[in-house]
Design a protein that fits this description.
The protein is an alpha/beta fold and 282 residues long. It has 12 helices and 10 strands. Strands 1-2-3-4-5-6-7-8 form an 8-stranded parallel sheet. A two-stranded antiparallel sheet has the order 9-10.
Length: 282
């Protein structure tokens, strides 16, 4: 769920939300003159990380904006679980950002922080496999439909044909790279039937979750993407195997012939936590 980084009330309210990821936004929802203030608000929120139920990510500004170094300087700290990079066009975008992150992580004695790359342009769609494969810390691709359609010169509609190819390609490329894909937002917050149908379409295309912009959308999306019994069993295997590997001082291991590392472990923990939270809420 995206939360405007310049709105202290929304940042506070998001502490009680049960989205899998709360993503504090520094990009589109924050006017340029409020970027600095938003960074400070987010930085302070991260200091209270224990008060949030969800994983906490921050969406930076785009590579083309030139603002990412300033964003990362403030948000790469203890308390942030990952960053979302919007409007990624090439693998090189990620590599440049990763270099900056490595420097900050070493200086601040932090473990590598995850990246989710947002695909929002025709160039990004063409390069989505390369982007997903560009770094081990890239855990997922997220589909950004509105900027993509703008790039194509196509008007947005709820069933826009202009996004069909891109929406289908992104989860394929993500899976081929061993990563996850998260679907675009559903803009009409009052159309809950449309949201559920759109979420089902996304799940059938291979997406594991959906971006949202309102708390009322959380339960609907969770209902559609709730893990299957086989996914729950897989997550348990991953956690057990990785815990054993860590005791042996190994950073990776295999489960049923498939390689797993810290990214898979964190996702497995998140999946089982989502199951636990869903049972509590129901």
């Amino acid at each position: 769920m995206f939360v405007p980084g310049n709105n202290s009330r929304f940042l506070e309210k998001s502490k009680s939300l049960r989205a899998d990821i709360i993503c504090f936004d520094l990009e589109d929802s924050v006017p340029f003159e409020e970027k600095k203030s938003a960074r400070n608000l987010i930085k302070n929120a991260l200091k209270n990380r224990s008060e949030y139920h969800s994983e906490i990510y921050v969406r930076t500004n785009s590579p083309a904006s030139g603002l990412i170094p300033d964003d990362l300087k403030e948000i790469i700290q203890k308390g942030v679980d990952g960053v979302v990079i919007p409007k990624v066009d090439t693998a090189n975008d990620i590599k440049k950002i990763e270099k900056t992150m490595i420097g900050l992580e070493k200086k601040r004695k932090l473990q590598p922080i995850e990246i989710i790359a947002s695909i929002e342009s025709t160039m990004g769609v063409v390069n989505s496999y390369a982007i997903a494969s560009s770094s081990k810390r890239v855990s997922a691709l997220v589909f950004g439909v509105f900027d993509l359609l703008n790039d194509l010169g196509v008007e947005y509609t709820k069933n826009s044909e202009g996004s069909i190819y891109s929406r289908t390609k992104i989860p394929v490329d993500a899976r081929a790279a061993g990563k996850y894909a998260i679907d675009a937002i559903w803009q009409d917050i009052d159309d809950v039937v449309g949201l559920e149908q759109d979420s089902l379409t996304a799940k059938n295309l291979g997406y594991v979750g959906k971006s949202i912009i309102h708390p009322n959308q959380i339960d609907i999306v969770h209902k559609v993407f709730y893990p299957t019994p086989s996914e729950i069993e897989w997550a348990k295997k991953v956690i057990n195997a990785y815990d054993l590997a860590k005791k042996k001082k190994r950073g990776a291991t295999t489960v049923d012939g498939k390689m797993i590392d810290e990214v898979h472990y964190k996702r497995a923990v998140t999946l089982l936590n989502s199951v636990k939270n869903n049972k509590i809420n129901s």
